[in-house]
Design goal:
The protein has about 650 residues and is mainly alpha-helical. The chain folds into 4 domains: about 70 residues, 434 Repressor (Amino-terminal Domain) (Orthogonal Bundle); about 40 residues, no CATH class; about 200 residues, no CATH class; about 240 residues, hpI Integrase, Chain A (Orthogonal Bundle), CATH 1.10.443. Helix content is about 45%, strand content about 5%. The chain has a 4-stranded mixed sheet with strand order 1-2-3-4, with no helix packed on it. Strand 1, helix 19 and strand 2 form a beta-alpha-beta unit. The longest helix has 22 residues. It is elongated and about 110 Å long. The termini are far apart.
Length: about 650
């Protein structure tokens, strides 16, 4: 017999028995005391601790709170924290690092009537990005870039305020809110330069014992590869301009160093890439076939005319970059010493290019190649002067550091970045890698301000430990690198850089002599160097091969080379400025209001401007950056009429003050 169908739930039947509710038994024993929002202190505060866990434990004992009381006090304001978590905080086993945990710490600071940041400022890694500040609609990579710069209470703020914070971080810290930064960011979205692996390999072979940028190798996209024959033509040019002595049968005016050779390869790649880019594409190039491109095209004025005008249309105005490109054109076609003038055989690969080069132009050039080169040389010199007259400044080198240069003491203002790194320095016993990276950042700023050298000399600086024999001057000259070593006779760290390592080796500042400077033991610089070399640098290296440089990158699974290159060192410096230099009004981190991201080269502007404001002497300013007074006046020092008048008034006012 099947069971009766189940009744639907609803109103109980009248004849159903009434079940009396079971009374919940009251918990036996002592009942918890009611939560007091602001408990009184049991004794006056005698001392404070620098460690977070010891200070939190002292404040809890001082106000009669145990772990369970703290848990109920936080639950009363809507923050759920486990008792074991509070126990770990007080014992130092764990530390707060989530959004909820930081909210709990803020509540405890209010509970004990402590100033904001009294407990959170004692965390072993006070500048660590808080976990849980999730932002919808962005990639993980962008979230990692933004996390450091978001306030701890970001997720609890109103949506409009969150949007304002994100917009400010992206514009000011990530991109840098200058017109040139915006132009550069837009240009990088559509790369068009052709790669020249043979020419780059020529540079690597010529300076194989020196570090720095390496050729890109076979990883490159085929679409961006230049024609192999043109690549070899440019490699021959690089070999000619970079050889120690002028090759037999040729004449040469000037030679290229490593950086200049790499720069010229990059610029030629940009030029031929613009010629090859589709006319209907985002780059709006000429649309020439890559197989029709060759080095001999640079002997025709119309090639340079199209390229210079294309850059003007792309940017909106002429700059000194176009003037410099025309200087290269003049050098390549100069009678007697120009590479194109001395190699008429290059013209055999010329082909007509619609809109640029006709068959008649090629025939006239083949008939008299040297006359064609002379015409191109005259055009480049004349047009270069015209462009220089109307050129505008697009990338103002002073703009990112303007708040520093406008200060009465620019060096004191920039030194605040080093002070900020010290303030936010994580504890090495709990966060050894983060402490090592912060120490490296601090030494980058310190040595940059003490030495005033260019980026290349700073990142390629070698080192010798205490007690080791310093490298010979000849060895360093061959490497074209400087060295940090211990001078046992004077009892201090010194930096020795051969004159061959400097970009301006022919400057009147050197007069053929090396740069030699003993570092001052100020603000614990010697202890900082020793600690970095003994503990932090080996930790950063990990299992990577030691390149021998003082500054090394943090070893990771994907990194095979621990030595900084030009781009990576610039990015490392820029990251330091983003985290410690730019004042963030939302996180209250960062040293200087109005500062923008910049690279290590701006340190030279700071040093030169500081000495100009203090002494008014371009000559003394040139001593700080190893250059000539003329170069300082033209490129580095920002010495405005108001600064000059203030310096003169200071001297004149002494008469009135003494009267």
């Amino acid at each position: 017999m099947p069971p009766p169908p189940a009744r639907k739930r609803g109103r109980p039947r009248k004849d159903a028995p009434v079940v009396a509710p079971v009374a919940k038994a009251r918990r036996r024993g002592r009942q918890p005391a009611p939560v007091v929002r602001f408990p009184p202190a049991l004794w006056p505060e005698a001392r404070t601790f620098a460690d977070f866990h010891r200070e939190l434990d002292q404040q809890a004992r001082r106000h009669g709170d145990n772990n369970h009381v703290l848990q109920r006090a936080l639950a009363a304001v809507g923050i759920a924290v486990n008792v074991s978590t509070i126990r770990n905080w007080r014992s130092g086993i764990r530390h707060p690092r989530t959004v909820r945990s930081m909210q709990a710490i803020a509540v405890l600071e209010q509970r004990y009537r402590l100033p904001a940041g009294h407990l959170s400022g004692r965390l072993p890694h006070p500048a660590r990005a808080i976990a849980g500040n999730n932002v919808n609609g962005i990639s993980n990579a962008e979230h990692r870039r933004l996390a450091w710069h978001l306030p701890d209470d970001f997720t609890t703020r109103p949506p409009r305020e969150r949007e304002e914070i994100l917009r400010w971080v992206r514009e000011v810290i990530v991109r840098g809110s200058t017109a040139y930064r915006a132009y550069q960011a837009a240009a990088m979205k559509t790369p068009f330069a052709l790669r020249l692996p043979h020419a780059s390999a020529m540079v690597d072979a010529r300076w194989k014992d020196q570090g720095g940028r390496r050729s890109e190798g076979p990883r490159l996209d085929v679409a961006t590869m230049a024609d192999e024959e043109m690549d070899r033509e440019i490699a021959d040019l690089v070999g000619f301009k970079s050889s120690t002595l002028t090759p037999f049968g040729y004449q040469r005016s000037g030679a290229w160093g490593r950086e200049m050779a790499l720069q010229q390869i990059e610029h030629l790649g940009l030029m031929f890439g613009a010629l090859a880019a589709p006319a209907a594409g985002p780059v709006r190039g000429l649309g020439a076939d890559k197989g029709s491109l060759c080095l001999a095209l640079l002997a025709f004025p119309q090639t340079w005319g199209w390229y210079v005008d294309w850059r003007e249309r792309r940017r909106g105005f002429y700059t000194s970059w176009e003037s410099g490109a025309l200087s290269v054109a003049a050098a390549l076609t100069r009678p007697e010493t120009g590479w194109l003038w001395q190699n008429p055989g290059l013209a055999r690969r010329l082909q007509p290019i619609p809109g640029l080069l006709a068959r008649d132009d090629i025939d006239r050039a083949l008939a008299d190649w040297r006359a064609a080169c002379q015409a191109a040389h005259r055009y480049a010199v004349s047009r270069g002067k015209e462009v220089k007259r109307v050129a505008k400044v697009h990338r103002d080198p002073f703009e990112p550091i303007l708040p520093v240069l406008e200060a009465d003491s620019p060096l004191t203002e920039y030194k605040k970045i080093a002070d900020e790194i010290v303030r936010l320095m994580p504890r090495a016993d709990r966060y050894p890698v983060a402490a090592a990276e912060a120490t490296r950042a601090l030494l980058m700023i310190r040595l940059g301000l003490h030495l005033g050298v260019r980026q290349k000399n700073l990142r390629q600086l070698l080192w010798k430990p205490r007690g080791a024999m310093p490298s010979t001057a000849r060895h360093l000259s061959d490497l074209r690198r400087g060295e940090l070593r211990w001078n046992s006779r004077e009892g201090g760290w010194e930096v020795y850089i051969p004159v061959e390592a400097f970009k301006n080796a022919g400057s009147s500042y050197f007069r053929g002599q090396a740069f030699h400077l003993r570092l001052p033991d100020l603000h614990g610089l010697y202890d900082l160097i020793s600690g970095y070399l003994d503990r932090h640098r080996p930790l950063l290296l990990g299992t990577a091969a030691d390149p021998g440089t003082f500054f090394v990158k943090t070893a990771k699974r994907t990194s095979t080379d621990a030595e900084y290159g030009q781009t990576t060192f610039y990015e490392a410096w820029r990251l330091i400025i983003q985290r410690y230099g730019i004042h963030n009004p939302f996180t209250k981190r960062g040293a200087i209001v109005g500062l923008l991201p910049h690279g290590p080269h701006n340190v030279r502007d700071v040093l030169a401007t500081h000495i100009l404001k203090k002494t008014g002497s371009y000559e003394q300013a040139s001593y700080a950056i190893q250059d000539s007074p003329e170069t300082v006046q033209e490129h580095y020092g920002r010495f405005l009429p108001g600064d000059k008048a203030a310096l003169a008034a200071k001297v004149l006012n002494e008469v009135w003050e003494a009267a």
